[in-house]
Design brief:
Number of domains: 2
CATH superfamily of the largest domain: AhpD-like
Protein name: Carboxymuconolactone decarboxylase family protein
Order of helices and strands: HHHHHHH
Low-confidence stretches: none
Organism: Leeia speluncae
Oligomer: single chain
Distance between the termini: 35 Å
CATH topology of the largest domain: AhpD-like
InterPro entries: 4CMD/NDH-1_regulator (IPR052512), AhpD-like (IPR029032), CMD-like (IPR003779)
CATH architecture of the largest domain: Up-down Bundle
Helix content: over 70%
CATH class of the largest domain: Mainly Alpha
Number of strands: 0
């Protein structure tokens, strides 16, 4: 693998959790591994590795974009990532209120339901 893959893998694990990332890579067959490599190198090793925004800011942006795209699996993953990157539950709820205004109430209702599931799994956060 490349240096960007290695850097991206480290960032991806720090945000999404080592167990999730390891499972994604271990479960990838030869075809799916192409996508795993692309995501790890370019999403995580290129964009997330940039110094222009802190990881917590990137997480906050992701919550809004992923909610707008109606991707609940990814939203749940990135709520956990946002907690890992230092956002508080209160800040995530504020983001969901913003989502309600700009993405619509149904998106916010789904986002709040998902966030509450993640919060329940992370009572210390």
């Amino acid at each position: 693998m490349s240096d960007k893959f290695d850097a991206g893998l480290a960032i991806r694990k720090s945000v999404l959790g080592e167990a999730y990332v390891n499972q994604s890579i271990q479960n990838a067959d030869a075809l799916a591994m192409e996508l795993q490599t692309l995501v790890t190198e370019y999403c995580w090793g290129t964009v997330w590795a940039r110094e222009g925004l802190a990881k917590r800011d990137r997480s906050l942006l992701n919550l809004g974009m992923i909610a707008a795209l109606n991707r609940p699996h990814e939203f749940k993953l990135h709520v956990q990532g946002a907690l890992n990157n230092g956002l508080t539950k209160e800040e995530i709820v504020e983001a969901i209120l913003q989502i309600a205004i700009y993405c619509g109430v149904p998106a916010a209702v789904d986002s709040m339901r998902i966030a509450r599931e993640v919060f329940a799994q992370n009572p210390e956060a």
